[in-house]
């Protein structure tokens, strides 16, 4: 497991952009040995998959609702994960959580139960 810390959330207007970041909280921890993902959650609803980057292949995965607007990336040297969010909409409003999964690939990345490390989240609010 690894302790994760997210940053970069905020209040923006429809159509704006935000860049979220996730880093390992403890020095010496690294994210490069995990598949990493962004999830989001709205109170009263289930946690929703947003995007993931697969361990080793670095292949990105996106939810249909964000494809073409969001872009996931990671800097293994700095052990950070990013989510570039463009053309934000009110329905993107949520707490965004960073998560890490060991030995997880492909369609398994869409399952929250496969992630064993979660950050506390960062709030993104998009006003109409």
Spatial shape: globular
In total, how many beta strands?
11
Number of helices: 0
Reported for the largest beta sheet, the result is: 7 strands, mixed
Helix and strand content put the structural class at: mainly beta
Query: Which oligomeric state applies?
Result: single chain
Outline the low-pLDDT stretches. Answer: none
Helix content: under 10%
SSE pattern, N- to C-terminal: EEEEEEEEEEE
How far apart are the first and last residues' alpha carbons, in Å? 38 Å
| CA gyration radius, whole angstroms | 14 Å
Strand content: over 45%
Average the pLDDT over all residues and give the rounded result.
95
Describe the structure.
- The chain is mostly beta strands and 128 residues long.
- Helices cover 0% and strands 46% of the residues.
- It contains no helices and 11 strands.
- The protein has strands at 4-7, 10-13, 18-24, 35-41, 48-53, 60-62, 70-75, 80-85, 94-101, 117-118, 122-127.
- Strands 2, 4, 5, 6, 9, 10 and 11 form a 7-stranded mixed beta sheet that branches. A 4-stranded antiparallel beta sheet has the order 1-3-8-7, with no helix packed on it.
- A hairpin with a 4-residue loop joins β7 (70-75) and β8.
- 34% of the residues are buried.
């Amino acid at each position: 497991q690894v302790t994760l810390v997210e940053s970069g959330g905020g209040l923006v207007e429809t159509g704006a952009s935000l860049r979220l970041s996730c880093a390992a909280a403890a020095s010496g921890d690294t994210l490069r040995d995990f598949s990493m993902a962004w999830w989001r959650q709205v109170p009263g609803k289930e946690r929703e998959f947003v995007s993931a980057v697969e361990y080793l292949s670095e292949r990105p995965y996106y939810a249909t609702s964000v494809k073409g607007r969001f872009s996931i990336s990671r800097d293994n040297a700095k052990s950070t994960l990013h989510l570039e969010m463009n053309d934000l909409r009110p329905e993107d409003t949520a707490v965004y959580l960073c998560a890490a999964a060991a030995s997880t690939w492909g369609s398994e990345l869409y399952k929250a139960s496969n992630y064993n490390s979660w950050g506390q989240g960062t709030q993104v609010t998009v006003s109409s």
